Amino acid sequence: MRTLLVNPVMQAVKFLSLFRRNQRPEYSCPTGCCPSTAVLHSALRVKGGSRVFDPQDPDLKLKIAEFHPSSIAGAYADVLSLAGVAQPTHSVTVFVSDNELSQAQRDELWLCFAVPVFEQIRTADGELVATECEAHNGLHYVEGAGDFETCECGRPMLRAACAVEHAMCAAAIG
């Protein structure tokens, strides 16, 4: 079972948005290779053959069907709304802010799209805080997302969350 203290993380990284208002955050694929991703978050920018779509666009489904994305990235409800329209061949990435994706939600996305599902924690303005890798064994915090130190259990932790997380680690191990 993964444990992630999101609220201290989100509080610790809110200041990032204040310094980066003039630069939109960039979407980065969790696997490093998503040739044509439909990103459903208008605050993000993309590279290569990927495109940003406004999830509120009334013609979203038509535009996605014409685009034929190899991957989809966005909030859970926005991604799920494309079931039966999009047929990604690579992956689905779900953006969360303060609650991690449940196993039931992962299963539902797998049933709809039959591709690996990844999770990314992003601030409301799209700043990446943490991302899941192909190992699907927890989330990796992004460098610069806060003030890190090494927890007694050996894992890097945000300073604000380190003491609480260590207690949870000790309880789980002990």
Descriptive overview:
By secondary structure, the chain is an alpha/beta fold. The protein has one domain (6-143): Rossmann fold (3-Layer(aba) Sandwich). The protein contains five helices and nine strands, in the order H-E-E-H-E-H-E-H-E-E-E-E-E-H. A seven-stranded mixed β-sheet has the order 2-1-3-4-5-6-7. A two-stranded antiparallel sheet has the order 8-9. The protein is globular and about 50 Å long. Mean pLDDT is 76; it is low at 3-8, 17-21 and 159-174.
Calculate Rg over CA atoms: 17 Å
CATH fold descriptor: Rossmann fold
Range of helix content: 25-40%
Number of DSSP strand runs = 9
Number of domains: 1
Mean pLDDT: 76
Low-confidence runs: 3-8, 17-21, 159-174
Largest sheet: 7 strands, mixed
Which class do the helix and strand fractions yield?
A: alpha/beta
Coarse morphology: globular
Distance between the termini: 15 Å
Number of helices: 5
Give the CATH architecture: 3-Layer(aba) Sandwich
Q: Please list the strands of the largest sheet in the order they lie side by side.
A: 2-1-3-4-5-6-7
Strand content: 15-25%
Query: What is the string of SSEs from the N terminus onward?
Result: HEEHEHEHEEEEEH
CATH class annotation: Alpha Beta
